[in-house]
């Protein structure tokens, strides 16, 4: 729980400086999973240009347990340094108003695939920080720089930004430690993550396990690549809303529940077993 905001809640931030890395899908899946076990979740979309989270849930049936979605439209200005404090205050004020309206147990910030003051504040304020990536080595440079043999040399640009935001967290006197998770989505469902990866595991998992170890964050598998996941957008559904009528749906639901359990969120005693 952070003291930046006027009401108690657990803050989850989902970010990465990369577009299309499954951030919104992860935010919605976690929020729906929380709602389905009786927790109140509100997603705060920090990307008003795209407005994806709200559009995702727009066609969702009112009968289903649903998270609230809000958008914060704080204005970036050209003079980034002098306006940072003002922007932070605007986001804190807007978040407090949203929390008054919804009284959530969990606030989930869905960040844009770019740097912004809003995203920085969300990265500092998070009790649980989730960096969502897709299963491709092309995602690695943002996390870590490597030499030509794939040996870690130093944190990548996004990881350095996370480090700055974590320093700012200390400056904001937010004493509680932040848990940082890297969640991999859109992986081949036949090549699941084993930790620690064996010598025969795909090179992607082996290298990523080394990178996350060096960065001091936890590594988990999220949702594997499923054609059905794209179509679910049209009806505002997640895999957790489907009847488990096929092995593929059952497997996708287990992935979502396993991801939620791995986050070890407060007050969640869910096991990996299908409910
Ligand atoms: N497990 C999955 N299987 C198949 N497709 C997926 C899966 N997860 C996400 N996608 C698809 O990948 C695309 C990008 O996902 P998403 O919008 O969640 O990314 P994002 O990081 O929020 O993007 P942006 O940076 O634009 O906000 C979408 O078309 C989404 O439907
Ligand atoms: Mg998004």
What does it look like?
- This protein has 275 residues and is α/β, with parallel strands linked by helices.
- The chain has one domain (10-263): P-loop containing nucleotide triphosphate hydrolases (Rossmann fold), CATH 3.40.50.
- The chain is 40% helix and 16% strand.
- The protein is built from 9 helices and 9 strands.
- The protein has helices at residues 23-36, 52-57, 80-102, 117-125, 140-143, 157-171, 203-215, 227-235, 247-263, and strands at 10-15, 41-45, 68-71, 106-110, 128-134, 144-146, 152-155, 179-185, 218-221.
- The strands form 2 sheets. A 7-stranded parallel β-sheet has the order 3-2-4-1-5-8-9, sandwiched between helices.
- Strand 2 (41-45), helix 2 and strand 3 (68-71) form a beta-alpha-beta unit.
- The longest helix is centred in the first third of the chain and has 23 residues, at 80-102.
- The protein is globular.
- The mean pLDDT is 89.
- The structure holds adenosine-5'-triphosphate and magnesium ion.
- Residues 23-24, 47, 52, 110 line the site of magnesium ion.
- Adenosine-5'-triphosphate binds next to helix 1 and helix 8.
């Amino acid at each position: 729980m952070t003291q930046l905001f006027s009401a108690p809640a657990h803050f989850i931030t989902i970010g990465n400086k990369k577009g299309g890395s499954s951030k919104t899908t992860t935010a919605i899946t976690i929020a729906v999973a929380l709602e389905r076990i009786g927790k109140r979740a509100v997603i705060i979309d920090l990307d008003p240009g795209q407005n994806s989270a709200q559009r995702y849930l727009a066609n969702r049936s009112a009968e289903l347990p649903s998270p609230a979605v809000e958008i914060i439209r704080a204005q970036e200005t050209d003079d980034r340094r002098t306006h940072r404090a003002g922007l932070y205050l605007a986001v804190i004020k807007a978040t407090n108003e949203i929390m008054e309206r919804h009284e959530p147990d969990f606030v989930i910030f869905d960040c844009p695939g770019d740097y912004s003051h809003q995203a920085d504040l969300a990265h500092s304020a998070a009790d649980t920080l989730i960096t969502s990536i897709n299963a491709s080595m092309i995602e690695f440079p943002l996390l870590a720089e490597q030499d030509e043999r794939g040996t870690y040399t130093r944190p990548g640009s996004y990881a350095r930004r996370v480090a700055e935001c974590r320093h700012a967290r200390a400056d904001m006197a937010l004493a509680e430690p932040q848990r940082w998770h890297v969640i991999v989505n859109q992986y081949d469902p036949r090549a699941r993550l084993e930790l620690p990866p064996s010598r025969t595991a795909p090179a992607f998992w082996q290298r990523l396990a080394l990178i996350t170890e060096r960065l001091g964050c936890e590594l988990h598998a999220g949702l594997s690549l499923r054609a059905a996941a794209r179509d679910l957008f049209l009806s505002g559904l997640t895999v957790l809303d489907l009847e488990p009528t096929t092995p593929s749906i059952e497997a996708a639901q287990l992935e979502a529940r396993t991801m939620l359990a791995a986050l070890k969120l407060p007050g969640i005693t869910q096991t990996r077993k299908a409910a």
